[in-house]
User: Fold this.
Amino acid sequence: MAADTWLVVGLGNPGPAYETTRHNIGQMVADELADRLHARFSRHKAHAVVAEGRMVPGGPKYVVAKSLSYMNTSGGPVSALLSYYSLDVDRLIVVHDELDIPFDSLKLKTGGGHGGHNGLRDITKAASAEFTRVRVGIGRPPGRQDAADFVLRPFSADERKTLPNVIADAADAVEMIVDQGLLAAQQRFHTAVR
Assistant:
């Protein structure tokens, strides 16, 4: 595989029951990136669906993936995709929901703990190295609502008005990481003001 290839994994749960939930915002971003690539997802033997392409002719190659397993077992498909495409973990970008970041905000980083996110926990265990993360804020649950219940609920009506912009920003952040590096993307998206 060419040295300019990147694996971008959008985390979420499979099936229509989860499509619009907060926990699946990573997969929503993956859908946006596939649209930008004018690529369709197809089944891969790594128990995932992948869409491949380049944003511009001669530009870096994207392998955008969504696991067909549940969030808690994301590590196996991610590890299998890295192996299949002969990619090191430094070519992996994981897009996921983040409770500790306000809705409509992004934070980008390499490495760090899983913060109770079972998808990240499983990927960290499988990848055994630090990888880049696009953390898409979904905010904390209101009142005493359980976090596990909150992430599996759809976005509110007010949130859905802003959601397309959030998804576009996260996809822009992925592209900027690939094109200009993590630091440039952090400087752009950690200080973004609408």
User: Anything to note?
Assistant: The chain has a mean pLDDT of 91. The first strand starts at residue 5 and ends at 10.
